[in-house]
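If your schedule permits, I should be very grateful for your opinion on a structural question. I have a record of one protein: its chain in single-letter code and its fold written as discrete structure tokens. Would you kindly read the sequence against the tokens and tell me how you understand this chain to fold? Thank you for your consideration; the sequence and its tokens are set out here.


***
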Amino acid sequence: MKLVSVIVPTYNIEKYIAKTIQSVLAQTYPHFELLIVDDESPDRSVEICQQFHDPRIKIIRQKNRGLAGARNAGIRHAQGDYIALLDGDDLWLREKLARHIEHLENNPDVGVSFSRSEFIDAQGNSLGIFQMPKLKDITPGHLLCRNPIGNGSAPVIRRSLFDAICFQDDLHGTLEDCYFDEHFRQSEDIECWFRIAAQTDWKIEGIPEALTLYRVNGEGLSANVLKQFDSWEQMIAKHRARFPELLAEWENPARAYQLRYLARRAVRLKDGKMAVKLTHQALKTHWQIVLSEPNRTILTLAAAYMLYLLPLAFYRQCENLALQVTSMSHKFRIFRDQLFLVV
């Protein structure tokens, strides 16, 4: 049985970390080590972690380096054949690891196995909607435009793949092996996935089940929409000279998709003015997204304007109705794909 190294960065998540650890310890796949990386958390997160007495748990302490730095520390300490990433405020379903290990063992050309994710609120309640990305035939261009993996708690990755993209950096005064780029405090996920897709022959492939519970709240870095876009632009600037042909073809469409994604995030944050502005920027950047994905683009524009123009109470009623319809659609697609997709 292959060993899985589960890496959980810990910083300011005392409200959630206990349930996150419990979701790992409850896995039906038992052969794992749980590496909790204390990124100099100022709250009681580490104290809570120390209350769990399981020999598979190891706590790694370091000066604050951000999410990328915490993950790098975890990977350097990892002993497993597979690396599973889990953010400290998200949760896994019990069969998460088992399904991914089965997927990877049955598909030796797949380097990254990810699942769909279900959105939960700050209290852990299901929002009834899911991340529904493309699962197969993921190209570097597609990944640059959309990030099918969705979030940092969805993938399980071969250790040999991380070894293939390893680089050395002395950002903190000592030359160290790195896998995520610590110059990024946002967009570190997509920057890493893009390097995997552009530099290696490994496939990135998803399984149809929603095995990750992804927490949506306004407290994390993802709530800062403008900084997130700046970080994305930083990633593009980094790779423009390294992959000139790829970026020449995909940079402009990818920027439009990113702006549209951030517009939807602004809608979730109930910032109608920003949502309208970002949607307009997306269409100005690459209007062809209306042709390539008409439903999503038009719905984003409609939601932005409704939020901007309508009274908030009325908008919330419309939003609740739309969420109910979306929830039914997502659940049907997951059920259908579990029946017909072979992974």
About this structure: The radius of gyration is 20 Å. The mean pLDDT is 93.
